Every structure is written in C-alpha cells, then in structure tokens.
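Chapter review. Work through the record for Lactosylceramide alpha-2,3-sialyltransferase before attempting the end-of-chapter questions.
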Amino acid sequence: MKMKRPSGFLKGTFKHVILVVIGLCFVYMVKLSFHSKECDMARIHYVNPEHAKRAQKYAEQVVQAECRPSFVKKGMGRLFMEKYSMNASPFVRRDIKTQEAIFKYKPPFGFHKFSEKLQDLLELLPEYDLPESLQSKPCKRCVVVGSGGVLNGLQLGYALNQFDIVIRLNNAPVQGYTDDVGNKTTIRMTYPEGAPLSEHEYYPNGLFVAVLFKSVDFDWIQAMVKNETLPLWMRLFFWKQVAEKIPVLPKHIRILNPLIVKETAFDILEYPEPRATFWGWDKNVPTIGVMAVVLASHLCDEVSIAGFGYDLSQPNTPLHYFDNLCMAAMNGQRMHNVTTEAKFLQKLIKERIVRDLSGGIHCDFCRKTS
Ligand SMILES: *[C@@H]1O[C@H](CO)[C@@H](O)[C@H](O)[C@H]1NC(C)=O
Ligand SMILES: *[C@@H]1O[C@H](CO)[C@@H](O)[C@H](O)[C@H]1NC(C)=O
Ligand SMILES: *[C@@H]1O[C@H](CO)[C@@H](O)[C@H](O)[C@H]1NC(C)=O
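Structure tokens for Lactosylceramide alpha-2,3-sialyltransferase:
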C-alpha cells in the first residue's frame, strides 16, 4: 500500500511520536540492563569469620562506652562551622510557616509553592518531636543502618539492637536478616516509593519519617495519615508501586524538615543549587542515607553508621544486603554523586565524629595488613 506523504503539520507530530518511541526504548533498555546484572550472593560474598568477630567487638565497644552528650553536634560545628545549623528542628513543626527560608527552594530542598498542601498536612499531624520516652534520655546513641551488602555475614544484629535509636532507610527489610541487621527500628525514613509494602516491617512505636520530593508525595502521605487509599490515577505519578496503607498512627508520622536536605546538599556536600534539566535531577540530590546521617546528627548525641559504602571498583559484589543487584547498578543512576558522599562520610569517620561499624567507608577495626 502506498502511504500518503505527511503534511508539514503531521511531520512535526510524527517527529514527536518517533522521539517518544525512541525515548521509551531507551528507558526500557536501561531497565533491562539494570535487572540483568544479578549477583549470586552466596557464591561471591564470603566473609572471613575473624573479620566478622572484629566488627562485632568494635560495635560492642561503641555501645558500651559512656555516651557523650552533644558529641556529634560539636563535631559537625567544628567541621562545617556556620554551614551547619546547630538548632535546626529535625522534623517539620507547625510554626514552619514563619520561616521564609523554607519556601525559597522546591522540594526536596524546601516547600516552594507548597504552603497550602503543607498546611493541610500539618493539621493532621499531632506531634513533631521524638516520642517522650526518647526525648527524656540525657544522652542518645543512634545508628543509621544503610542497605549496603557489606552488612552480609557480619552478624552485627545483636550490637545494633543496643542503640537507643535505630534509623532504617526506605524498604530495607528486617524480616529474614535479623542476625546481620538486628530487629529494632526506631525510625524508618523514606520517600513514598520506598515505604515497605509488607506490614511486618512496621513496628508499633516506630516513627515513620517521610521525605517529600514531589506534589503527589504530599497527597500520598496525607492519605496514609488519614488511613485512606490514594486514587488510582494518582498512583501513576510514582516511579514504582507505593504502599496502599501503612500501619502507622498519625502521632508516629513525621515530615523531614527540608532544611536538613538543603543543608546536606548545598552547605555540607557543596552541590550547586538546583537547575532545571530535561532528565530531572542534576546529581545534586543527596541519598536518603546521607540525609539520615545529617538528621541523626541533629537528633542524637552520638552517631554510628552501618551498611554504608558502595565500592564501585567491585562491580560484581552485592549492592544491598537484601536483593541481588550488583554494585554495577549504581553506575546507572542519575541523581546522586556517590563519590562526593563517600568523601563526606570518610571525613566524619576519620575525624572520629561518626563511627563506621561495618567498615565500608573507613574501617577502624580491619586488620591493617589485609
Ligand atoms: C527482637 O528479637 C528478640 C530476640 O529474638 C526478641 O526478644 C524481641 O522481642 C524482638 N524485638 C522486636 C521489636 O521484634
Ligand atoms: C485503616 O482502615 C482499615 C480498613 O481499610 C481498617 O481495617 C484499619 O483498622 C484502619 N486503621 C486505623 C489505624 O484506623
Ligand atoms: C561529583 O562531584 C565532584 C565534585 O564534588 C565532581 O568532580 C564529579 O564530576 C561529580 N561526579 C559526577 C558523576 O557527577
């Protein structure tokens, strides 16, 4: 059959259709390559039992030493001076509307153009501090548990359970991994797409800390607070399946103060301020992990980390402790600058402001000769 030559107008439309199709193919290919690099953890990941013992001993020493009040804040102040805001409140409070700085940037760095949605949300949230039982402790020792494959086989679970506050990130599971990651969750910090789908990952008194990136994130968290389901059409705006309900009471839900994200990105990591780019972000968004470390510095007196450190020079090692992605998958992402983040964490650990319990960033307990 002979095709009619498209008119000028149609040509333009046709071009767009072709572009969209090419774009979709590209996205599909990226997705494919992301999924095809699976790591056989059992085969690749061998942990020397001596190394695991040293890690456990080191973590035990950290939790048994006397807790030093304000230790981490003093350290951050020394390192970053006025760039670190000593008195930032970790979670969004009702009086946030009086703080103009918050409305200068778009999410996740601020609430520019979101003051109404924010207002609606804040009216539903009765609390914005740590629960009284934790608040009243004179010295709080916290650990941020990252998702890194470096946790496999170290059996740090027992030591991690002894921290006052255990912060977990996104969908990193506890069920099935308690020997390595413990079973205590005081805070789960995540964006909507990261919220665990399994109700067993939520604990009765755990806090749920939401990090808001986009307009539908406000709708999602509001629906969760009200124990409603989000309309189907809205779900299309998320880049993966989001939880329909989360078994958390409104009094246990918090919104991360975007000032913490702004401080992490522009002041501490010294990323350039946001520019609009066609593909979304500009490698200036910190990972939830680094945001959580900065959050912990505001919440706690002492901070440790475990499960941090992406060793990009080992593309075939497991990326996470709970799935079979390879380290190589990290090279495909476009939001985060892993190198800059690792340097920041290394600095904190070498200056002894933060302890690295699994040694993936900087190892204080590893045998020097290895
Ligand atoms: C964690 O495990 C210990 C021992 O297995 C158990 O006693 C405790 O109740 C568990 N805690 C939670 C929050 O599941
Ligand atoms: C949320 O709604 C479900 C029904 O959809 C109900 O079973 C559950 O008890 C509710 N949860 C709360 C905390 O009200
Ligand atoms: C990460 O940031 C550093 C500067 O801090 C820059 O030199 C490097 O090119 C960035 N890497 C990527 C992949 O954007």
